Amino acid sequence: MATAGYDENIWVMSMENQKKRKLQIGIAIAVLSAVALLLLVLVVVLMKGNAAGDRTVTEIAVDQTGEDEFDVTDNEDEEAGRFDVTGGGDEETDDQNGKSRSGAAGGGDEEADDQTGDGEDEWSVDRLKAGFETAIQYDKQYKAYISSREEAERKIREYGEQQRELYSNPEVTEIEKQMEQDYGLFAVNLGEMDVETARDIERAFAYMYREYPMLQGTLTNVSLGNLNGFTNGKIAITQVNEFIINEEFGVCPHVVKHEIILAASSFLNRDNFLKNCEQMAESGHWPEHTDISSVVVHELGHQLLNAYAMQQFGLQDPYYITEENEDAYSAYLTDSLSSYQEIPKQVLNEAYERWESEHPGEDYTTFCKEISEYAVGVQTDGGISYPETFAEAIADVYLHGEDAADASRKIDEVIRE
Ligand SMILES: [Zn+2]
How crowded is the C-beta side of 283, counted as CA atoms within 13 Å? Predict the structure, then answer.
């Protein structure tokens, strides 16, 4: 029972346990809650001209909300993420990049430079891969007995330090450390991204933690990661990940990370990312003026809803799960995993009622559409994701303040109360 080391084999075993348990217990773990993001519909929109016919809009809009309908797929995706490193999504993105405006602001590092501007010169699959992938591994799991909150925190911090050794990016590392301090994060790993992009991320955090102090202490990690195995086009996910498993999955005490993972394929490819933002905003799929910061605000919007749910369920110290907070944790997880998450639904319904009193007779879909197309939250199975509506509203308020859609402002009003 002594503290075990970081051992890959153990990790593999634990994954097998996990799979079984997931099916039995119905709790999805590894990738849970979350959310994700803004997706790739864009690819469809952008590539209309030359995309193969089999790419549909639905493929894009999948979010990692941890809702029932996605559990199985998410798990598969997650595994695919580990083994299928190349992933199809990048290619689409790359193509666009080749065509994108040249000389746009910039990629600080070598890889990014290759991609931007005159990509035609030295184009090769290997180069592209190198440019869009990070050395960081965000999804490892270990087996060990962790006997205190302090030790749990230390393990998460140590793991972040280990990841930091995989890249050398001093200017960005300064930002990482500052973010850890300012926002109570245990580990921030922005990896190989250029400093401008890191600053965009920092700006989003500064805004969100200032405006919604409830976020403090709910998130343990922010990391760049290769999300290629997820549904193509994932830009980011917000999730709960069981990091240190005690004997078996779910046995207390255990350690979970609450994290935002930023896709290397987007965050290491700044020019293309900005161009996508522009086009998604123009098409109305995302709010007007969407930029990298607002994409991160969207993700933090998911976390804000998570923070609110933690509060409602009385979940404290959400990263170290013991017999004391286990019930609250499992209530929190169960709601995150259910198709019709109660907490998000309550928030949205309350906001809708207030909005409807000023827009008599208008239905719920109209309410969502006022924010953005994506805010309608339609999922591949036709279900509706409340968290997407919520996150889009928060991003809209960030971008437009008083001029944000009435619907966004009502949602913001409810969560601030
Ligand atoms: Zn989202």
Answer: 18
C-alpha of residue 174 to centroid of ligand 1, in Å? 28
Q: What is the largest CA-CA distance in the chain?
A: 63
Q: Report CA(9)–ligand 1 centroid distance (Å).
A: 33
Pairing of strands 221-225, 254-263: parallel
Ligand 1 centroid distance, CA of 63 (Å): 6
The whole-angstrom separation of Cα 332 and Cα 147 is: 23
Q: What are the structural domain ranges in the chain?
A: 8-321, 341-416
pLDDT at 302: 95
CA 103 to ligand 1 centroid distance, Å = 30
Report the separation in Å between the CA atom of 285 and the middle of ligand 1, taken as the mean of its atom positions.
12
12-16, 21-25, 188-192, 406-410: least confidently modelled range:
12-16
Q: What is the pLDDT of residue 135?
A: 94
Quick check: helix, strand or coil at residue 1? coil
What distance in angstroms lies between residue 391's CA and the mean position of ligand 1's atoms? 6
Kindly report the pTM of this predicted structure: 0.71
388 CA → ligand 1 middle, Å: 5
Among the listed residues 379, 125, 83, the one whose alpha carbon sits nearest the alpha carbon of residue 226? 83
CB atoms within 10 A of CB 114: 19
Q: What are the residues whose beta carbons fall under 8 Å from the beta carbon of 126, sequence distance 6 or more?
A: none
pLDDT tens digits for range 108-137: 222 222 233 333 344 444 444 456 899 999
3-class DSSP string for 141-189 = CEECCCCCHHHHHHHHHHHHHHHHCCCCCHHHHHHHHHHHHHHCCCEEE
How confident is residue 382, by pLDDT bands cut at 50, 70 and 90? confident
Cα 120 to middle of ligand 1, angstroms: 33
Instruction: Give the distance (Å) from ligand 1 centre to CA of residue 320.
Output: 26
